[in-house]
Amino acid sequence: MRNEVTGRANVAGTPELERYYKDLERYETAALWTVANKIEPWEPKSDSVPVLWRYRDLREHVLRSIALVSPEKAGRRVIYLNNPGRRDVAAAVGWLYSGLQVMNPGEVASAHMHSASALRFIMEGEGAYTIVDGHKMSLSANDFVLTPNGTWHEHGVEDSGSPCIWQDGLDIPLVNALEANFFAVHPNLNQAVGYSVDDTSKTWGHPGLRPVNDTWSKGYSPLFKYEWEPTYEALQEYARATDGSPYDGVVMKYVNPITGGPVMQTIGAAMQMLRPGEKTQAHRHTGSTIYQVAKGEGYSIIGGRRFDWQKRDIFCVPSWAWHEHGNASETDDACLFSFHDLPVMDALSLYREESYGDNAGHQPLAA
Ligand code: GTQ
Q: Residue 363: its pLDDT value, please?
């Protein structure tokens, strides 16, 4: 890949060079100038493509898996989101994995742990629970739950519940790319519950308050569950005090109550509200994001393509892709849950952001 710009690799091929390249191959080497322009692009080039996964298309196929495989045999009964540009690493976008997990009442998956960090966002059903290092959490629609790296965790649905579906989000592709992924099955297959149900919410879920004498020093939030009602209430209150972000509307991030930083070291998450009729401005930034529509309907324009979404649809924004969002309703708000790898971008000083208009060369498609 040659490039005419001074300072970029621009070597014309000759028979002699071709012979030279062949010789280098024999010693497991190659000439940088044959690949330099590809491996050092002017700006990030994502292999991921924007995708909208429509829940009304997917739901019945997710439910079909209940009759086809047991959680015992499958380990976890999950249909994962397979980005056409990232099938080789089972990523939904960039270095993030996501899937829809389904469980029937009375089912429980075996407890396990892995180096990847994980989260759940509950989509439908009654009676779902997750146990994380002995902390049991009851889960309802739009609740957001952490199962941080290195914690034992298992999921199930109470006998009295209904079929439950939730979205899993993990950094499996990232941790695999870093060649640092371990996995273990719990020696007893299931964990004992060591605390009162929802104890992390009772302990850490009070804004502005924190227990005296806490000794938490782990790299992830001690609050494992972020419930929908207080989250939605917080957004509505905040909307009365802010004009919101020009790119995201009224947006709040889920945080580690101790540090105020992201909930986990590699994955951050947010909930945003688009007010009735709100249309945001386009921007782009490094880092990959996966959205789930928690409420309402609208559209997003991602990399020049328009995606119309409804409640429970999932879509992704690849790194450095222009994106903007719109609420289709003039009367109701719309809420988007999202998770992303921005903590990694921040930690490595790789975060970069650009608003449309700062760069006249790239115009997003009009709605
Ligand atoms: O439940 O921890 O969708 O390890 C994929 C891998 C869920 C889990 C997934 C996992 C999990």
A: 44
Nearest 5°: CA angle at 128, between 267 and 182?
Answer: 40
Mutation pick for ligand 1 pocket among 62, 98, 101 (CB with most ligand atoms within 8 Å): 101
Range list for CATH 2.60.120.10 in the chain: 52-204, 225-355
* Torsion, CA 131, CA 64, CA 228, CA 223, rounded to 10: 20
Protein residue with its CA nearest to atom 2 in ligand 1: 118
Q: Is the CB of residue 263 below 6 angstroms from any atom belonging to ligand 1?
A: no
What average pLDDT values come out for the chain (367 residues) when binned by 10 residues? 87 97 98 96 97 98 97 94 98 98 96 97 98 98 98 97 98 98 95 96 94 93 98 98 97 97 98 98 98 98 98 98 98 98 98 84 43
Q: Of 2.40.37.10, 1.10.10.10, 3.40.50.300, 2.60.120.10, which CATH number belongs to 52-204?
A: 2.60.120.10
Q: Is 132 in the pocket of ligand 1 (CB under 6 A)?
A: no
- Which burial class, exposed, middle or buried, applies to 282 when counting CB atoms under 10 A from its CB (0-12, 13-18, 19+)? buried
How far away, in angstroms, is 119 Cα from ligand 1 center?
A: 9
Q: pLDDT at position 359, please?
A: 53
**Contact call for residues 337 and 144 (beta carbons, < 8 A):** yes
Determine whether the shortest distance from the Cβ of 122 to ligand 1 is under 6 A: no
pTM exceeds 0.70 for this model: yes
| Chain center to CA of 307 | 18
What's the pLDDT score for residue 4?
A: 85
- Closest to 226 in 3D by CA, of 297, 132, 122, 150: 122
CATH of region 225-355, choose from 3.40.50.720, 2.60.120.10, 1.20.1600.10, 3.30.1240.10: 2.60.120.10
- Beta carbon of 114 within 6 Å of any ligand 1 atom: yes
